[in-house]
Specification:
Length: about 325
Amino acid sequence: MLALIRVLVVEDHKDWRKLVRLLFQLRPEWQVICEVSDGLEAVQKAAKLKPDLILLDIGLPKLNGIDAARQVRQLSPNSKIVFLSMDNSLDIIQEALGTGALGYVYKGYAQRDLLPAVEAVLRGEPFVSSGIKGHKLTDPTEAPAASQHEVLFYSGEMAFLESFTRRIAAALKAGSAAIVNVTKSHRDSLIQRLKAERVDVDRAIQEGTFILLNAADTLSTIMVNGLPDPVRFLGVMSGLILASGDAANLEHPRVVLCGEGVGILWVEGKTDAAIRVEQLCNDLAKTHEVDILCAYPLSGIRGEEDEREFKSICAEHSAIYSR
């Protein structure tokens, strides 16, 4: 019988805690003994429970994950730590690993990387998501990590804005590039939130690493007879990806593409068009170093037909999130 590994999960978003539990079903010997949502409680539970492993987010209320890890190392020195974070900036990764943690998983790659990361750390080996630019513990000659094409189903404006802000801010702070295709109201709110996250939005736009598109204008450009035209779509998006990538301060930038045009199509009942856009995004991901996040409002699911369409949309993505 395999020895049980006692795990403390520290994450303030319930959907991420749910994802961890689902993934851990593949390793029944990894037993989640406690879940907490803030850094101070994490320190208290670690001191009391002395878990074998702690999965630790960084952006926590009351006490951030890095400061919590420093305290945990003093109170429960035998607990191994794996960070699971939306922040992929080199400075943050180095600071996190400087606490004595062995693992760092970027949330965008969680479904691919979390289980291998935990396995490595339990063996006493370091693990950092290979798709994170500027920090690589694996063989530098290996092929780049596959592009990601993910989907977010959101319950409200706050969830949408928080998810997009995190993804865009992480890319721009890491010196990469972001292309954002949203409605005008979301555009203005995103800019405000990014500035609150200390992203120099004006400079990024001027330098060409941050490209803001109006979703309605983009759809009018690529649509022909109710469906996206492949030549128009791939021509427009490829040009923007190459231009923003060239402007980025990295040798091989991975461009982040966040958009809600497909969500607009879905709400309008044009699901076939939305799915075709998703398929074209998959084509983009095969030829460019790009990570794509598409957004759909959960309010679009109204009956059995919508549920079938929901499953068809999910099938086109490498990861599915709901907030």
